Amino acid sequence: MNDVVAKRKKYLDLFFNEGECVIYSEDTYVRDSVPYSEWMHKGVGYTSYKKNGDLKRAAIIQNFFSINPHKKGTTRGCSNVEHTRNFLFEIDYILKKRNDTTIYSDPFEILITSKKYQLEFWKMMIKEHKFPASTLLDSGNKSIHVCV
Predict the structure, then answer these.
(1) What is the pTM of this model?
(2) What would the 3-class secondary structure string for the chain be?
């Protein structure tokens, strides 16, 4: 198992136990649930790409997965969830409009005018309040996702 795959497995072990099933996908189309250990074995592949004219090889793992284990052979759906123990919180960015010329007197109001500072703010809040988050990421410049 290469380093990228080992790190990814360590992260995903936070969500799934041995013997549980996961629903995953390489794209936005959901597949049937499969045992987690099978997914980690089959779910890793390699792709080739060119960088600066050189052919490179990289490990790929499916990008989309349900954060809670599902019953074996089922599809995504509330009634198919085997254990509900992980939660995802979505925090939308608060953005200042381009033509807004408001002069802010409160430092917090200045903080929220930048996505970078908002992400740092939530990292600080999670750490300071010992929130048991396994993930904090930017979901494509629209919001922050936090998995607990």
Answers:
(1) 0.65
(2) CCHHHHHHHHHHCCCCCCCCEECEECCCCCCCCEEHHHHHHHCEEEEEEEECCEEEEEEEECCEECCCCECCCCCCCHHHECCCCCCEEEEECCCCCCCCCCCCCCHHHHHCCCHHHHHHHHHHHHHHCCCCCCEEEECCCCEEEEEC
pLDDT digits (tens, 9 = 90+) for 69-120: 999 888 888 899 999 999 988 888 776 555 565 655 555 565 566 777 778 8
What residue type is 18 in one-letter code? E
Domain stops at, among 80, 115, 135:
80
What span, in angstroms and rounded, lies between the C-alpha atoms of 69 and 15? 8
The region that residue 112 occupies, defined by phi over 0 for left and psi between -120 and 50 for alpha, beta otherwise, is: alpha
| 63, 114: one domain | no
**Per-residue pLDDT tens for 12-30?**
888 888 889 888 776 666 6
Domain boundary among the residues 56, 80, 104 is at: 80
Report yes or no: 92 and 141 within 8 Å, Cβ to Cβ: no
